[in-house]
Amino acid sequence: MAETTSDKLSSAFMAEFLRNAGGTAIIDGGLATELERQGADLNDPLWSATCLLTSPHLIHKVHMDYLEAGADIIITASYQATIQGFESKGLSRDESESLLRKSVEIACSARDNYYDSCNTSIPDETPDGKIFKKRQILVAASVGSYGAYLADGSEYSGNYGDSITLEALKEFHRRRVKVLAESGADLIAFETIPNKLEAKAYAELLEEENMSIPAWFAFNSKDGIHVVSGDSYSECVSIAESCRNIVAVGINCTPPRFIHGLISSIKKVSTKPIVIYPNSGESYDADLKEWVQNTGVSDDDFVSYVNKWCEIGASLVGGCCRTTPDTIRAIYRTLSKR
Question: Which residues make up each annotated binding site for Zn(2+)?
Answer without folding.
Answer: 253, 320-321
